Each structure stands twice: as C-alpha cells, then as structure tokens.
Records
---
Amino acid sequence: MNSPVPLDEYPIHQTPLSLARVASSDRNFYDRCYFNAFDRDGGTMLVTGFGVYPNLGVVDAYAAVRQGDTQRSVRFSDALTVRGLEQRVGGYRIEVLEPLQRIRVVCDHEDIGVDLTWTGSFPAVQEQPHLILNGARPIIEACRFAQLGSWSGTLAVGGVELTADPDVWLGSRDRSWGIRPVGEAEPPGRAAAEGGGGFWWLYVPLRFDDFAIVVIVQENPDGFRTLNDAVRIWPDGRIEQLGWPRVHIEYRSGTRIPVGARLEMTAADGKPLEVEIRTHTFTALHIGCGYGGDPDWTHGQWKGRDWSLSSVYDLADPAVAARVPWGAIDHVAQVRCGDAEGWGLFEHASVGRHDPTGFADWGSVAP
C-alpha cells in the first residue's frame, strides 16, 4: 500500500465501475478525504468528508457542525457507477481549484450549508503507512497525507450564516486510501469472541505561524507502540523528524475526555521540543459522522440510491453523552511550542484497557 501522494488530488480510480482496477480486491478498499474547520473566536467546529468504496459500489459524504452542546450532521450516499473527475454525491461536492493548495467544499442542505475554500499554509506531508492486523489479516492497511491550512467562505447552520475569515478560521485535512472496515458489518467471528482488549489512538496536526507539526501514535493495551510518526514541516517543504513522542494526557475527572496534553519530542539537533495543548470544543466522529461505532450510519454502507439523512444530537442529553467515550473525538486544540502559539486538531480515542494511562478495563475513567 506504499502508494505515492496522488498529486492531482482526483479520485484514484477514474474508469467505469465494471472496468475499475483497484489496489485490492478486499471488500473494504476505500479512498477518502477529511477536512475540519474551526472558528477560534466563536466555538464552532465543522468536520466533513467524502468517500468512495469501489468494491462495495458506494459513494458517500457527510458534514457535521458542533455549536455549544448541539452536534448537527447531514449525510449523503448513492450508488457508484462511473468514476470521473467529479467528487460529488447528492448535494455535496469537492472542487480541486489548485492541487495541494486550494480546495472548495460545498454542501447544499437546508440544515447545514457549506461553501468554503481551503488554502494550504504548508506543504502536504506523507504519513507512515498504517497497519492493524486481526490475526494474520490486515483490517487497516492505509496510506495517508495531511496538510494544515485556513478557510474562507460561508457556513450556514440551522438557517444562520457565518462568514469564515481565513485569519480566524483554521483547519487541517487528510487524504487516505487502502483498506479499513467499511460498509455493512462482517460476521463477528473470533475477534468478537476473544476481544481486542482496547484501542488507543492519537492524531495531532498543528499549525503555527512559521511551521506545522503532525503527530500520529497508536498503542496496544499494554502500551506497545504500533505506529509512531512525528514530524515538523517547514514552509519550504523540509520535513524534520521529531523522534519518539512521549504523550501525557490530562482527562476530565470521571471521563476519558481530554482537557489538555503535553507532547515531549526531540528536534533534529537533539534538543527537546515540547508542545503544550489545551482542548476546546469537540466533535464525536461516531455520532452522526459515520465512523466506527456510529449506530445511525457507517461509511460505505448501502442505503439505496440518492439517500440523505439529517440529524441533531444534544450532547447534554445523558443518553447521547454516554456514547461520547466510545470512539474517536476531534477536539479544537490551542497549543504552544516554546514561544510559538498555534491551533490545530487533537484527535483521540481511548477505548478499553490502556496500561500507560492507568485504564484497566472498559469501564475505567480518570480519577
């Protein structure tokens, strides 16, 4: 799966579905992009994405906005027939205005209206390949690139329109392709019977005035690290490896929701490099966004032709709030690295046992 970054940014497969040759015959092959946008002043966060699943014959997209305790989402899905240059499904589309630099995202829906243009602030960086095995079978085998930037345009939520100023509205994006669980659930089999013990994940793309930092870490329940990638990206395209990050997360008492973190890394010259993080509003990706554990909709799931769904979730509702810890959560992050101040994304999932943070089982929470 060590494919190069697709510099033209168009869908990887551009032939009629009946003739398409994808990189794998695995039913779970996917090609997907993700964006987030946040207002540093107003507490609004948008996450949105578009996915193609050639071996399932499905194309879909979603947009979700968090304001206060309300998380709204709209989803679109349809049959995949012809892979052309357009990235479009229902009222959602992505337009590549300038590859790896300017992208327009449009969502035409009465509950969430998006017409935003993303502009890259730093070059895209290729992340390390991501591999997770279930026994001998890869269940995730993916390549991805990430990039930091800013937004301009408009966002309408519940009939109220906001204007995105690129000096205020920041965000990151990624593009990934490979194999990961999508579509209808497969038979649970041995993995469900024996259990995985836990899942611990951290993805942190950060934007400063003079550089960007991207950290991605995954660990087994005993703390053994299976994915370790930490880099600093300079405006001229130089990529500096930052060694083996030491991660210290502060959780809200009685939960697994992070309120702050410290990342201890090492610069190329051997000097310590430390990032302090405070989290702000968040979006739960498994509540209306289609990621693992979402009972309403899953990426690649067949819903019929020209399908869409709009939902509103009250995160103050105990029944909804109880779902939050059981998946990946994307936080707006306010950060400091030495004298540099910045913003970015703090995406974290801690489910089940994780020895380094003292979570002994599925019910463990911070003291």
---
Amino acid sequence: MISAQAWADTRRLWDYHQMGHTPRPCSVAIGLGSHDLGVAETAVDLYKRGMAPLLVFTGATSPTTRERMPRGEAVHYRERALELGVPDSAVLVEPRARNTGENIRFSRELLEEAGVDVSSVLLISKPYEERRAYATARQLWPAVEIVSASSPMTLEEYADSIGDARLVIDMLVGALQRLLIYPAQGFMISQPVPNDVLEAYDRLRHEGFTSRLLATNQPSA
C-alpha cells in the first residue's frame, strides 16, 4: 500500500521531470528507445501534425526489452510507425544505443552521415524521462535547440499503463538521482532542483523506493 504522502511526493517528482515545452516544428524528431511503444506513437502523432519532416528512432535492447522487442527498440519503433502510416522514407533507425548519452550521440552521427541539416530537435521520451533526456542532449549537442515531448499522460494513467505503481515511483526516484549526480560526471547539464522536490525525493528514498538507484553517495535536501 502506497501512502498518501508517498503519492504526493511522487507527483512532485513527476511534475518536475516534465519540461512543459509546447511542441513546435523542428528539423527532426528523435524517439528514445525503451519498453514503451507510446514513444513511437507520440512521434507519429507529432509527425502527422507537421512538427517534424523526419523521425529517428534510437535504441538497441536492454534486459527489460530483450524479450518484448527482440529486434531492438528502434526497429520495433520503426515498425510501429510504418503500421500507423508514416512512409519508410521518413524514418531513420539508430540500432546501437544502450543509454541516453548514446541515443543522442549516435543519432547525431546518423543525421550528419545522412546530410540532414539540424538546427532543432523534437526529443521524445517517456513522460518521466523528459528532463533527463533534455539535460543530456543539451550537454552533448549544445548547438541545436531541444524541444521536449512525451505522451500526454497523467501520473495515474502512466502508473496504470505500467501496472506497477511501486515500480513507477522507483523509476521516478532513480531518474531524479541521475539528474543530481550525472552533471558532475559530464553526462548532462546541471539544472536547479527545487527544495520541495529534493525533500520529496529524500522521503521516497527513506521509504524504500530505491530499486532504480545507483550505488553512490547521493546529494539530498
């Protein structure tokens, strides 16, 4: 049973992880691979709305996607996009990336090799990964403008879609930890974290929502 306080703290993290950007036309849309085909579906919706003339799907496999997406996350995303009516000529696949940094670096290399002029990127991720993806892209591809996007879902809708609310909280806590520690390692830009978000993060850690945390000394409120 998840307490009312824990759920309120989770909502603080959920709101913080989302960038609140309004989608606008960009040079390209990049969908970051994961277990969630909703990323591909959101990319298709944005493509059909004229927000990008080209889609890039990036991602290999991970322990959580190996069985569900045996051909690789990016390949399965592409297949879903084609099912939904996107022409093959409008989709590029980057099948090697195994983390967010590689998603950005390898997608950038793929677009450079294809001769695509990129001044702005519509970066599509899972809802709770928006800020992490944005911060990583700003670090690794500073010359382009980054516009964040994800499936328009509430926290409750996302938890229902995963079917495990505790796992969702663990993922939100883990994502925030990375925002706190990765800038010092050069993986992403540093971003201010409000005190109420840090306090919520600490309470959730102390309540045991820790399965997605890295083993390291962690900043806290």
---
Amino acid sequence: MKTDIILCGVGGQGILSIATIIGEAAMKENLYIKQAEVHGMSQRGGDVQSNLRISSNPINSDLIALGGADVIISMEPMEALRYLPFLNKNGWIITSSAPFVNIPNYPDMETIKADYKKLDHVIMIDIESMAKENNVPRSANVILLGAAQKALGIEYDKLEAAIQRVFARKGEAIVEQNIKALAIGKAAQPNT
C-alpha cells in the first residue's frame, strides 16, 4: 500500500486537521507516514499545503515528486490547480467548488471549472453549502475528507475512529458533528 497525498487550501480552512485525521488512521494501521507542511505567510488566508505520504513500506522522503501524487485534496478550487503538475496520470482531485477569493486577480470561476473539465478524475462539491445545510458549519473540511475516502484507499471506519480519537478532547458534540460530516462527504462520492 502506498498513497501520496497533497492537501491544500488557505489558512483557517482545516487542511491540517484533515492531515491529522488521515495520519491518525494510518498510524493505527501500523503504516509508515511522512508529512511536510508549508504555511504561506503563516496566517489565516495564506496558502497552506501539506505533503502526506502513507505506505506499508518505509518512506525515504517526506516530499512528493512531480507526477507522484495519487490524490490532491483541496479546500479551494484554484489551489488544487496550482499543484496539478504533482498529480500522477491516474490521480484524483477532490476539491471544494466554493472559491476563497483572497487575491485581487482571482481567476473567473468559469475558467477554473473549464480547467477541471479537462481532467478525468475530479470530485468537486460545494462543501460549504453542504455543511450549513446539515448544521455542521465548522466541519466542511471533514465533508471533503469523506468525499476523498475511496481515493485515499483508507477504510471508512478507520477514518471515523480517527475522528473520534483526534476530536475526543473537544467533547462528544464535536466528535458527533465531524462523524456526521464524514458521512455527508462519503454520500457525495461518485459511484465509480
């Protein structure tokens, strides 16, 4: 088993929480894991990117080479396109469809959607709306994780158990909200 994942978005969207949940699930399965993070401008609204490598064999580097990523999980649609050169030809992009416009020359969403239509393996969903509609507004990132579950190759129940461990100190209500969010994302996966 080997899965190389790029997680990206902007500061404050919960990218690092997704990485923590995936890492927790992988460690409980006695898999090897390496992670490297980049925090753009180290502030809310700056670029955040994480390389997360999971394998049943030892991992030498924490960085993913060009064309080496199996999955890109992005909280922001333009950010995923930034890392497209790292995606392998059979790789998946799972992204939010809602832009986080934090720069003056942000591209038109129709242009971004046209770029996605050229790709074979994309799940683009409006996680922000789904989170609000389902009364889990602070768990949009976990909805995205649920949508990425099959592409990650991690069993659903392993992610659910990781959520319970990661959020346990925040109380049962937070754990339940995030488990609900994971289920919402899983339901949004295409039947492929």
---
Amino acid sequence: MHFTTMAKPTGSLCNMNCSYCYYLHADSSQDSGTLCMSDDVLEAYIRSCCEACEGDEISFTWHGGEPTLAGIPFFEKAVALQKKYLPSGRHTVNAIQTNGLLIDDAWCRFFRDNHFEIGLSIDGTRMIHDMYRSDAGGADTYGKVRNALYCLEKHGIRPDLLCTVTAETAASARAVYDTLKNYHTGWIQFIPIVRRGEDGSVTEDSVTPQAYGRFLKTIFREWIGHDLGKVNVQLFAETALMLAGKPATVCWLAETCGNILIVEKDGSVFACDHFVDRDHRLGNLCTTPLRKLAESPFQKQFGENKKNLCRSCRECPWLPLCYGCCPKDRFSVNEDGEKQYYLCEGMKMYFEEAVPALKAAMEMSTQGKSQKEIMRHFLRK
C-alpha cells in the first residue's frame, strides 16, 4: 500500500483564529501537554517514514494548526534527521502549509536552501480574507499574508495559493480569481467550506451547492479563455488528468481514500485530517511502525468505505471523475432518502461545463493547436 503522511508539529496550535477552521475544534485528547513535537517523536516519525515509504521519493508534509510556530530550529532538526535515515538512492521532498504570518527573510532562506514546497493560505480579496481570517487577537491579516507572499517570491519561491470557498467567496468568483492569478504564482487550490452546527444544519458561511457550481463555472470559463497554460487550478488539472485515463492524485476525488495519515505532535496517528478523533486513532508511531498502522484492517476498511455510494451516485455519468467526493460531507439526503455529497449538484454543474471543454481542448492539442489558438476558440464560443 502506498501512503503518505501529514504531520502537525504543533498540533492544532495556531496564531490565527479563522472562523471556519475545523482543526481548532479537533479532538485534543492525544495532546502530550507540550507545545511542539518532541525531539524523540520527531526522530521516530522520520525514521518510520524512511523505513515505510516506497519509491524513490519520500515526502513529508507539515501542517497544523500553524507549523511555523515550531520554529526554524525544529525544521533544521527534521532535515538533519531525514539525511540521517534516508535510504541510499532515494530523496526527500518537504512541503509546508502556512498562514504566512511568521514568514520573513530567515524563513525564506531556510525554505529556499532546503527546497521546501510552500502552500500559502490566502482567501482571494482583502475584504473576504479579513472577514474570515483574523489573527489570534482579532486583527486583520491580509496585509501580512500578502507581504509573506512577496517575501517568498523575493527569494525565488513560488508558493501554491490555497483559497477557501465560503458563501462570500462564491459570490465574488471573478474578483477572487483575478486577485489570486495576478500574484503570478502559477498554482491555485480552491477548498469549499462546508460546516454544520450542533443541530446538523449547514452554517451560513458555508458555500451552497448551487453557489459552488456557479463559482467553479465562472472561474473555469475565465481560465480556459485566458489562462490556459499560464495558471494551474487544482480541480481543473485533476479533471484533465482523469479524462486522460489516469488516477486522481487528491484523495477526495479518488476511488478510495485512507492513504494520507495524520501524525499529531505526540506521535498519535489518525485515519484522515477530517477524522482526528478517538474513533479514528490508529495508534502511535513511537510504538507501532507507520506501515503497520497504514496497512491495519481498520485503515483499509476506512479507505474502502468511500465506495459505499447511494444509487444516484452509482448511476451518475460523472462517477469516474469524483467517486462520490469526500465522505466527510456525505450528509445531504437525496430523493431516494440516501445520503450523498452535499456539494453534488455544484460538482455536476462544473462537470457539465468543464468536461466537454477539456475534451475539446485536449483534442485540439493533439491536432497541434497552440494554447493561444485553443483559448481563442473558447473566447469565440
């Protein structure tokens, strides 16, 4: 079984207080009482990854909370341990997801010198970002995040931009997309926000299925008419990949899930970053090898459970492109009384718009058409 890990060196600790953050409310029963992963747990984690992971590349993804709160010395130790335990003939890749508040020249030099891949969270326009993403004291953060982006670029680092899609974001699709693409980083991910209150109802800041579909369609039309080959949008790239007959690289679009394990700061390992709770705790890597946890019957069943689909999903023509999407959000009850993905209608709207266009673009590419010619074709349409 191929698997990767996502480590949270400071657990859910963060210097921001985003209103939609699900990590802030994750079960903290696994916390060790320390603010950061200990040296012993860090060494056990890296050793276990190097022993377990297959292939030439061993990847480490650092998440949170906010992982930069662990400090540069923590990551210097991590890189040194990776070199210590790296098997001959293989190499490591480090990726970190950050809110950007602590990013300065020192961090950028460390990232550059150690070839870290950076994901930077920024919610499009200043107004929308500051509406949802305040710091721990309630202050606006857009200016600091934008400065972090400029600092990274000054050091030759082009971060991936991660933007959440809330109700407010969805209503401002063009403004959000234009703002992000004009940072010229080349890669954008849009992550829909779906939250439920204690009574099970969807919160007001969550994007609705219809609004999500309109959002994706608006951005797709702009992208294929103006930015093909210049900007990568994760969902569009994944759709094209699957249309070419290749498997999805992101878990929520894959046929099964469960191959991205979450490592908490005390070494506890969980089935998924959306299921950090007692029921989905696999064990602790300090006492059980990561591969054994990844290949446990519980985790295998967790991954296979993604195939438990309602009738409308099984009969849907778009099934090979989404496989029912993320199980976390399969709570919408359809006309048959079965549960399905809450944003299903929005995804259908997107596929109906994007799939014919992507197929046509791929066909024109095989005919030798340039990207400019392909974009002109869609602009005329």
